[in-house]
Amino acid sequence: QVQLVESGGGLVQPGGSLRLSCAASGFTFSSYSMTWYRQAPGKGRESVAAITSTGGSINYADSVKGRFTISRDNAKNTVYLQMNSLKPEDTAVYYCNRCPPGAWGQGTLVTVSS
Questions:
Q1: pLDDT tens column, 23-42
Q2: CA–CA separation, 99 and 114 (whole Å)
Q3: In whole angstroms, what is the distance from residue 67 CA to residue 62 CA?
Q4: Which of 7, 25, 74, 82 could form a Cys-Cys staple with 30, CB 3.0–4.6 A?
């Protein structure tokens, strides 16, 4: 079955960096676009960054453009999210999913606070 395991979250100070990873299994990873989402406390889930199956096209939410970088390694069935210049408003649980979305993983919590 489809499994998505996010990791790499933690507590970081404003201006800091984190690199999230999402290991996928149970489907042909290299055939799917992938998206990183986040859900802040008390808010709905929003898409943050998306990458096509070959990595040839990438899109970002305006709120993270210039600070976050999505990438993927199809040989490792893994998608990454490099997050730089983190802000308190980036605090959220981060999830990855394929396009169209299937089952969700447990997510990884990112807390940006001094």
A1: 999 999 999 999 999 999 99
A2: 35
A3: 10
A4: 74
